[in-house]
Specification:
4 strands; Rossmann fold; globular; about 30% helix; two-stranded parallel sheet
Length: about 180
Amino acid sequence: MKPTASHGALYGGAPPPGIPTEPVIINACLSGNVPTKETSPHLPVSVDEIVNDAIAVLDSGASILHIHARAPDAAIIVGTIPWCGWSDGNPTRARALAYSDWIRAEADARGLAVADLWAVTVDRPDGISAPKQPSAFPPKYQGDTFHPNDVGHARIAETFYQTYVEHYANNATGNAK
């Protein structure tokens, strides 16, 4: 395929005028919310397929990945926004708190468990990545003073796990207690 101005940045060319050249976040959706194996034979649905595709997209540069699970009795846990180094008075900090309040209210209205990621990360700079700080997740990642480092990811993972144990561990329906 011959690169065009509209996607030149993806293929090594200069981006079109007015398109920022800063790094971007690539969010890869492995499963989509509509496709099935019948409509797309390459759709990952088994655990092994999803894991293999997840590794491939992270190795290719994706920053975030998500799936649309097809398990009607799955235990759903919603996470608030984690603190990303914003100081008091920063408008982004205020927006993150407002979004987290909205997430809690919407999850509560739907009977979903909430992992309070803000509470376990706020004002804890040891969980924020530093420039050039290597990380095991995602592969080849270097810190940027914004995203969690391995300590921050561990706190987030532990919070999701504890939320699961508190709300779902002994509840076969998949709904929060």
